[in-house]
Write a structure and sequence with these properties.
With 605 residues, the chain is α/β, with parallel strands linked by helices. It has an eight-stranded antiparallel sheet, covered by helices on one side. A six-stranded antiparallel sheet has the order 5-6-7-8-12-13, with helices on one face. α12 links the parallel β19 (339-344) and β20. It binds 5-amino-5-deoxy-1-O-phosphono-D-mannitol.
């Protein structure tokens, strides 16, 4: 996710900004830039690549007391010098840095172009610069307020003007922003590590708060200009834990970032109860596809398994999900109207890329779902849908998976709408339920202590089983992968009904069996399987929806999930499994973020 750092004061802004941005590098970025006040003008320098490239491009700079800087994680437009922040208006009078997504940027951009504004980048952020220009007469503060009233979406942003070099204007909604309070100098940043060592006194900005920052003051108001009294937060974190936002590991931080990742991935994609992917200009392919192949590896493959069930149920199109390393060597019976969907967090996984190329070699259309803008699969596929999970640093994938699920649901809803395969009312109902899933995940995260206690109880086991039927089976596979990947405990996932065809022989006294029960119609069937394992001495942990707890009474432990539509249940049921894997790994002393033998991006076959 992008990083913001701004400075105003009597010191020298540029080294402070570069240092602050370097402390935000852990957030991930693909380009960096800075706007500084020099001799009555704003000078902007920005570069694709690492901060070191920006420093080289900057060369020696004169001392200045005002600058804003940014590290960009591409969401709209590929990583490039032009798309890097800060963005300026047509006159170069103002410069803006922004984190988040302006959902209505396309309409705003069209209108601004008609009004004569020239755009230099493909970003959503640039509309902010031009909107502020449009409303700017003599007060930057007023212009920013008016501009923000036109935008929908999320933002943490900071703006400076060459005509008002004594202030930085900043505001926040749904993306993090903090204000650092110094002596004769103040800072604005997207996270605490950026200002650590300079001050320990910060304001944590809340949604819809607005700040006018000078060297000696930070006036905070709501978006309408009403003053807000805020308490100063004293930071006591050490620099390393600060990078993790106070969490012990990136994995835990990323698990907790899932509600926000869901919001960002949904942003602007559901309008009036309907999913809109028409801008992809792929409707004909979606409408006519005879068969869809979903191809991916590891966790992304598990997201594809959920995608298959969702697409088949809603869009009534045959779907096959396959592991990329198998698919690439299969002799697939291609039909010209087939569609291949590749899913990859990194967009660089060698096997997934090879499968994509294989499909293209046969003239088959390919849609990529990836988290990394401009990655190899994004470049080579015919079309791409981005997940907006932000950079995922832990090797174990969590928030990327949940956003891949979100995209699969959006796609299933969209294709169903195009093909008229699902009742209209049900489609819009499901779309609006999807919009609430962030809060459902928040609810599940509150169960973390219960999950931790389970891990404390079972931390010494040698082997575990994960069971489920239908969508629950797909999630069970992801739960088992998480556990073995980071805690090194043997974990196997089985379709609950398949157990008695062999694996039941492995069930012995005290073996934990984590069973997912979120599919209302299958609960009785799952209970029969639970009886089978209980009769062999297993301890059964049910991860079950609260409306099904009565049926699950025979289980030894229960982790309750909110009452959600069964189709959407994977979005909530995976969360306790991620937490279980996390706590098991911590309690067993494993290196959670960097598990042995594994790499984040697998770029070899
Ligand atoms: O970047 P990708 O999504 O293509 O990566 C695929 C797998 O390597 C990845 O999901 C892996 O299984 C994760 N480490 C699991 O947590």
């Amino acid at each position: 996710m992008c990083g913001i750092m701004g400075y105003i004061g009597r010191g020298d802004a540029v080294p402070v900004i570069i240092d602050g941005l370097s402390k935000l590098e852990y957030r991930g970025y693909d380009s960096a830039g800075i706007a500084m006040y020099q001799d009555g003008n704003l000078e902007i320098v920005k570069k694709k690549g690492r901060l070191a490239d920006l420093v080289t491009a900057l060369g020696l700079t004169d001392k200045t007391g005002l600058a804003i800087g940014h590290t960009r994680w591409a969401t709209h437009g590929v990583p490039s010098d032009n798309n890097a922040h800060p963005h300026a208006d047509c006159t170069g009078r103002i410069a803006v840095v922004h984190n988040g997504i302006i959902e209505n940027y396309a309409t705003l951009r069209k209108d601004l172009i008609l009004e004569g504004h020239d755009f230099l980048s493909e970003t959503d952020t640039e509309v902010l610069a031009h909107l502020i220009e449009k409303y700017y007469t003599d007060s930057l503060e007023e212009a920013v307020r008016r501009a923000l009233s036109c935008v929908h979406g999320s933002f943490a942003m900071a703006v400076i003007s060459k005509d008002e070099p004594e202030r930085i204007i900043a505001a926040k909604k749904d993306s993090p922003l903090i204000i650092g309070l110094g002596q004769g100098e103040n800072y604005v940043a997207s996270d605490i590590p950026a200002i650590l060592g300079r001050t320990s006194r910060v304001y944590i900005m809340e949604d819809n708060e607005f700040v006018v920052l000078t060297s000696d003051s930070a006036e905070i108001t709501d978006i309408n200009g009403q003053p807000i009294e805020k308490e100063v937060f004293e930071v006591t974190w050490d620099p390393v834990s600060a990078e993790k936002g106070g969490f012990d590991h990136f994995m835990l931080k990323e698990i907790y970032e899932q509600p926000e990742a869901i919001r960002k991935t949904l942003a602007g994609r559901i309008q009036g109860g309907r999913v809109d992917f028409s801008a992809l200009e792929f409707d004909e392919v979606f409408e006519k596809a005879e068969k869809i192949f979903i191809v991916a590896c590891g966790t992304a493959y598990h997201a594809g398994l959920v995608g298959r069930l969702a697409l088949e149920k809603l869009a009534r199109v045959p779907v096959e999900t396959d592991i990329a390393s198998e698919f690439r060597y299969r002799d697939v019976l291609w039909k010209p109207r087939d569609l291949v969907i590749v899913i990859s967090q990194s967009g660089e996984t060698a096997d997934t890329l090879a499968a994509l190329r294989e499909a293209k070699r046969h003239g088959i259309k390919v849609l990529a779902i990836t988290n990394v803008v401009g990655s190899a699969v994004a470049r080579e596929a015919d079309r791409v849908i981005y997940t907006h999970a932000g950079p995922e640093i832990a090797v174990a994938s969590t928030k990327a998976y949940i956003t891949q699920l979100v995209v699969m649901y959006l796609l299933a809803l969209y294709v169903a709408d195009l093909r008229h395969t699902y009742e209209d009312k049900k489609l819009t109902g499901l779309a609006s339920e999807l919009l609430y899933m962030d809060t459902m995940v928040e609810q599940v995260l509150k169960e973390h202590n219960k999950v931790k206690k389970l891990a404390e109880k079972y931390k010494g086991v040698q082997s575990t089983f994960f069971l489920g039927r239908g969508l629950d089976y797909a999630v069970a596979m992801e739960g088992a992968l998480k556990l073995k990947e980071i805690s090194y405990v043997h974990a196997e996932a089985y379709a609950a009904g398949e157990l008695k065809h062999g694996p039941l022989a492995l069930i012995d006294k005290g073996v934990p069996v984590l069973t997912l029960i979120s599919q209302d119609k299958l609960v009785e069937k799952s209970m029969s399987n639970i009886k089978e394992v209980k009769a062999r001495g297993a301890v059964v942990v049910a991860i079950c929806k609260e409306n099904l707890q009565e049926e699950c009474q025979e289980c030894d432990e229960q982790i309750l999930l909110p009452r959600v539509n069964p189709i959407l249940a994977p979005l909530v049921s995976v969360v306790p499994l991620q937490l279980f894997a996390y706590y098991m790994a911590v309690l067993r002393g494993a290196d959670v973020d960097k598990p042995r033998n594994l790499a984040k991006s697998v770029t070899v076959e």
